[in-house]
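User: Can you predict the 3D structure for this chain?
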Amino acid sequence: MSHDIGIGIVGCGLMGGIHADCFAATKGLAPVAYTNRTRGKAEALAKRHGGTVTDDFAAMLALDEVQAVCIATPQAHHHEQILAAAAAGKHIFCEKPIALTRAELLDTQAAVKAAGVVFMTGHQMRLHPVILAVREAMPRLGQVYQLDLEWCFRITGHTGRCWESYRLGGFFMELGCHAADLAAFLMQPHEIVHVSGHTLRIDPERITEDCTNALYQYDNGAIARLLVSANHRTRRQGLLIGRVLGEYGRIEFTVYPYTRACNEAELIIDHGQKIFVPDVTRERLPIPELPSPTSVYKGFFDIYYRQAEAFCRAVTEGVPPPCSLAEGCRAVELVLATYHQQGEATRLQNLRHPPDDYRADAECHPLVKNDSTTG
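Assistant: Here is the predicted structure, written as structure tokens:
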């Protein structure tokens, strides 16, 4: 339809198909072109929703009916495709991570700014009803001191884009950027000011890391602890376990992508009037029963629909998207900072080979303002 925003889908696998379905179901949007390394997948989407199959991304960008693009290709291609789309004046929805190095992030920001196009990052977890319920309830905890996120899978393979190259990052870049973005999102408006990271390669056949622990400190002194692993499960494969600790109690929550089960959150307020017996109030936070556009990620409810609607509003009404270019860049920066801090720790070997002036007394505490303290 002439009044619809025509969207070209580059990368027609699982995520490209989900996005195409949601764009097609959103008033004001229409998938109109498709390109994929395996042409059959693009043809299947064209048969489902109508539109043109192109041989490559450049041919798609040359189509007048394409006003926006959805980039759902492997992450190594995101940078070049964002630059090409911006140069062609197309609005951009891009899956995470939007880039893989700081230089690529700077290129992306400059290109999008120069083109004046809308950019939205695909961090769909910001729209998950459990996450939104937790964020809404957090003020009831008073001062929040700590956020814990644990997201673990048991994956036996050692090939594919998670493991093949340091250039692509590893499992923390692939999945951990979602956790890093959630840490930033849940603790807004506070900013992360310090990052510590520890990465491991537990499977020796993998090239890159497959387990990461990260510690983020915020400008108000609160911290977030992240564990992202491809080596073990926590109750269920792919279950995200979270906890928020505050001065009046805590919120415990779980997010499970694959079924509706385990998508829940509980607010626990400690009244503190009794010592030896429980003195708490427990409240299950309401999680709405929402439809899902995909049989694969039933536990994500309608968040892909809402992403499509938000992208449409951003393009047509100028409404800020739920995850902007700056926020997408921030998630990648947190991953890169975690990798960097691990590299520094590995290089220094500060506990295995401590320096001669290593301090182990109270004067070495980081809050002690003493220029002579080096430990």
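The chain has nine helices and 14 strands. Residues 325-348 form the longest helix (24 residues).
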